[in-house]
UniProtKB/TrEMBL annotation:
This is diguanylate cyclase. It catalyses: 2 GTP = 3',3'-c-di-GMP + 2 diphosphate. It is an enzyme of class 2 (transferase). It comes from Massilia yuzhufengensis. InterPro entries: Diguanylate_Cyclase (IPR050469), GGDEF_dom (IPR000160), Nucleotide_cyclase (IPR029787), PAS (IPR000014), PAS-like_dom_sf (IPR035965), PAS_fold (IPR013767), Rev_trsase/Diguanyl_cyclase (IPR043128).
Length: 449
């Protein structure tokens, strides 16, 4: 076999491999232009395509991984892994699939001109990983800092049953804590009354429930804490007395010294690189959990979809960095407007979404209006220019979890589309007449499949 034949045979073998590989493989040029892909890639990417074509990897993935182009252009090495197992959350991407689908993307820079992407459907693995993460956190809570914890007995409604020294040491509360809900250890707007009961219910169902985040002491000062709730075995009521019902044990630990490492891990996995807000993955995970819970115990959940108006014109006039500065400004206002318990996320290029637990349509619309008017009254200073911009918002809510995050976000996007159509710089509420209406473009891309 001469050299040319040898090369041809190797090329054939490579094509065969690409074709038959059990994962999606895409070869692209450095700007994302797709040169070659195998059938699994086409299957995974097609639902995301804007126009039914698949010419560019970055464009195809823009609605689920807006950071990809930036990651690639910012990658300084001559060759290597640009990202490794990045999770891409598809929601309404695949018709007939109720559960959100999660793709994993590994992007390799082969040389100055070529990229190789490896795509895989990891929906099932991610579910398992989540379970393992909880287990890890649980073990961590048991095995470390055993002396530094508050042990709090709770009644069936989450009321604190008695005071002890450990509660005083960790939280500074005295006997006056007795009878109050355990949410007194959380910042004022970090937990709704429904969440308080959700966690007890989850602990009863799973054997324990653990969360980590900001906590407050009696004097209002904050600390970083983990809170584990476990159900206690039911006690026999004294003869003739009414059953006491299940009671719980809350173990509260001050883990301020671990905050930095745990926040960094959280930021890496759940943070948006540009704005520092939650990313798409964090939004969908939180929304899924919230709606599952409100399916079990009905309560309203709202979503606000927010989109900067005429953003292309801002980019055109001030350049991409000017546009980025506006997005960061908007993220800061979003952070100030919403409660600690709300999940504020950047879910696409210039599209943001906020999940508001235990909130009905009128209340969510009031907050959305507050946001709109705050943005309209601000000016962004960028390299000597004063940029004014506005946002449009669409608000929707579900009385229970029925329909899931796909339906809720779709309705918010339909309302957002209506706000854009009505002239922008407006808030529109979803109403049944909008049911068949188009969704705003970013969601439309996902729904087009
Ligand atoms: N600076 C910057 N621009 C982005 C980013 N992500 C998306 N974009 C740009 O945002 C613009 C969105 O434009 P369009 O979807 O046409 O909408 P628009 O100009 O905002 O107009 P309306 O939404 O109809 O008011 C596009 O030009 C994108 O390139 C980002 O991370 N940074």
């Amino acid at each position: 076999m001469d050299d040319t034949e040898q090369l041809r045979a190797e090329h054939e073998a490579l094509i065969q491999f690409l074709y038959l590989a059990p994962v999606g493989l895409v070869q692209a040029d450095i700007d994302g232009g797709i040169v070659m892909m195998n059938p699994i890639s086409a299957q995974l990417l097609m639902p995301l395509s804007r126009d039914g074509g698949l010419d560019n990897l970055f464009t195809a993935l823009e609605s689920v991984a807006p950071e990809l182009r930036h990651l690639c252009s910012g990658y300084a090495k001559a060759a290597g892994k640009i990202c490794d197992g990045l999770h891409l959350h598809l929601n309404a991407g695949l018709p007939g699939k109720k559960a959100p689908q999660i793709l994993s993307l590994t992007l390799l820079k082969l040389d100055a001109r070529r990229l190789m992407a490896v795509l895989d459907d990891v929906t099932v693995q991610v579910r398992r990983e989540r379970q393992l993460r909880q287990n890890d956190a649980w073990l961590n809570a048991i095995l470390t800092g055993i002396t530094d914890y508050a042990l709090v007995g709770l009644d069936a409604q989450g009321g604190i049953l008695e005071w002890n020294e450990s509660i005083g040491r960790v939280t500074g509360y005295g006997a006056d804590a007795v009878g109050k809900p355990y949410s007194i250890f959380y910042p004022p707007d970090a937990m709704t009354p429904e969440h308080l009961l959700d966690r007890l219910r989850d602990a009863g169902k799973d054997g324990w429930n653990l969360d980590e985040g900001k906590r407050t002491r009696a004097d209002g000062s904050g600390f970083w804490g983990s809170a584990m709730i476990a159900p206690l075995p039911e006690r026999e009521p004294p003869c003739g007395a009414a059953p006491e019902g299940p009671a719980y044990c809350l173990i509260l630990r001050d883990i301020t010294d671990k905050r930095e490492s745990s926040e960094r891990r959280r930021r890496e996995a759940f943070g948006d690189y540009l704005t520092g807000l939650a990313n798409r993955r964090a939004f969908f995970e939180a929304a899924e959990q919230e709606l599952q819970r409100s399916n079990a115990v009905p309560r309203p959940t709202a979503v606000i979809a927010i989109d900067a108006d005429h953003f292309k014109a801002i980019n055109d006039r001030h350049g991409h960095p000017g546009g980025d500065c506006v997005l960061q400004h908007l993220a800061a206002i979003l952070g100030e407007t919403f409660r600690e318990v709300d999940v504020v996320a950047r879910i696409g290029g210039e599209e943001f979404a906020v999940l508001l637990p235990s909130t009905d349509l009128p209340r969510a619309a009031v907050v959305a209006e507050r946001l709109r008017s705050a943005v309209a009254s601000e000016v962004v200073d960028f390299e000597g220019a004063r940029i004014r911009y506005t946002v449009s918002a669409g608000v929707a809510s579900l009385a229970d979890g029925e329909g899931g995050i796909d339906l809720l976000l779709k309705r918010a996007d339909q309302a957002l589309y209506a706000a854009k159509r009505a002239g922008r710089n407006r808030v529109e509420r979803w109403r049944p007449e909008l049911a068949g209406a188009p969704v705003h473009q970013a969601q439309g891309d996902r729904d087009a499949a």
